[in-house]
């Protein structure tokens, strides 16, 4: 049974893994801490970028750099060590060859190409135990775990609104509904996402840049613009060189005014790009987490497609009384059809409230 020292090490490993959110896809974020038999830390590491060393290997390297021998040590890992050779070798075998005597992991690897590490370790005589702080570790890896089991990216819809649910005033003005503190927090969400998605309405109304600012070392997400008829101006801020951009259009859109811009053409229905087709295409590109920052119409389209998996709302202590609502056109006609949510977090951000919620159906599945 895991010890209190191992639980403490697991919390440290979870914190290490979180440092790479938004940087490892299509791989998970993983942290690892190595302990000697007395519970002292020998080394630690985390997976920093796809294609680079995994957490276990980085922890072994860190121990070596500190001058510590690891034979007979315990490895505390947030995810079951992988059991396959891709761009890097199998971590289970690396631990065996290093002489690790015990492995404690939080979450079993659901990826059919990588699972089986625990069995490989056990067959080599390494004591293994799974499930330590599994819920905490899974929350830190929620997008990747979701995408592996669903075959599409996890979508977080972010919106800002007044207390009466308005995303803009009657004259269309919306800058700024929420505080500078909330806007800075949105950059954290962008930094943790693989892609940020907006529609042409938001593009023309606000000319957003959508790049991460104010977070040192952040990996810029892919900026995705849904623009069926390619009405985007070539001088739009989202086309600058601050981050990569993908413009998604219908099959017949004229994109000659966008030389050098990556364009993805997808089939349309009723003049709109299909949300399932979009998410499938992003998944094929290695995108595992999407931050939806579009306006109420695009948010409604994602909701109607059953593709809103997380909701993060920033509520400002203000009232407008008129103006567009935060959500529109979601295909909900009665109170009985309402998408019910479980609120998982309420935090004060400056003068505003940040609420995070997940659909009740998803909460039941996760539990």
Automatic annotation (TrEMBL):
<dbReference type="InterPro" id="IPR024072">
    <property type="entry name" value="DHFR-like_dom_sf"/>
</dbReference>
<keyword id="KW-0511">Multifunctional enzyme</keyword>
<dbReference type="InterPro" id="IPR016193">
    <property type="entry name" value="Cytidine_deaminase-like"/>
</dbReference>
<dbReference type="InterPro" id="IPR050765">
    <property type="entry name" value="Riboflavin_Biosynth_HTPR"/>
</dbReference>
<comment type="pathway">
    <text>Cofactor biosynthesis; riboflavin biosynthesis; 5-amino-6-(D-ribitylamino)uracil from GTP: step 3/4.</text>
</comment>
<keyword id="KW-0378">Hydrolase</keyword>
<keyword id="KW-0479">Metal-binding</keyword>
<dbReference type="InterPro" id="IPR002734">
    <property type="entry name" value="RibDG_C"/>
</dbReference>
<comment type="similarity">
    <text>In the N-terminal section; belongs to the cytidine and deoxycytidylate deaminase family.</text>
</comment>
<dbReference type="GO" id="GO:0008835">
    <property type="term" value="F:diaminohydroxyphosphoribosylaminopyrimidine deaminase activity"/>
</dbReference>
<feature type="domain" description="CMP/dCMP-type deaminase">
    <location>
        <begin position="4"/>
        <end position="129"/>
    </location>
</feature>
<protein>
    <recommendedName>
        <fullName>Riboflavin biosynthesis protein RibD</fullName>
        <ecNumber>3.5.4.26</ecNumber>
        <ecNumber>1.1.1.193</ecNumber>
    </recommendedName>
</protein>
<comment type="pathway">
    <text>Cofactor biosynthesis; riboflavin biosynthesis; 5-amino-6-(D-ribitylamino)uracil from GTP: step 2/4.</text>
</comment>
<dbReference type="Pfam" id="PF00383">
    <property type="entry name" value="dCMP_cyt_deam_1"/>
</dbReference>
<dbReference type="Pfam" id="PF01872">
    <property type="entry name" value="RibD_C"/>
</dbReference>
<keyword id="KW-0686">Riboflavin biosynthesis</keyword>
<keyword id="KW-0560">Oxidoreductase</keyword>
<comment type="similarity">
    <text>In the C-terminal section; belongs to the HTP reductase family.</text>
</comment>
<dbReference type="InterPro" id="IPR002125">
    <property type="entry name" value="CMP_dCMP_dom"/>
</dbReference>
<keyword id="KW-0521">NADP</keyword>
<keyword id="KW-0862">Zinc</keyword>
<dbReference type="GO" id="GO:0008703">
    <property type="term" value="F:5-amino-6-(5-phosphoribosylamino)uracil reductase activity"/>
</dbReference>
<dbReference type="InterPro" id="IPR016192">
    <property type="entry name" value="APOBEC/CMP_deaminase_Zn-bd"/>
</dbReference>
<comment type="function">
    <text>Converts 2,5-diamino-6-(ribosylamino)-4(3h)-pyrimidinone 5'-phosphate into 5-amino-6-(ribosylamino)-2,4(1h,3h)-pyrimidinedione 5'-phosphate.</text>
</comment>
<dbReference type="InterPro" id="IPR011549">
    <property type="entry name" value="RibD_C"/>
</dbReference>
<dbReference type="InterPro" id="IPR004794">
    <property type="entry name" value="Eubact_RibD"/>
</dbReference>
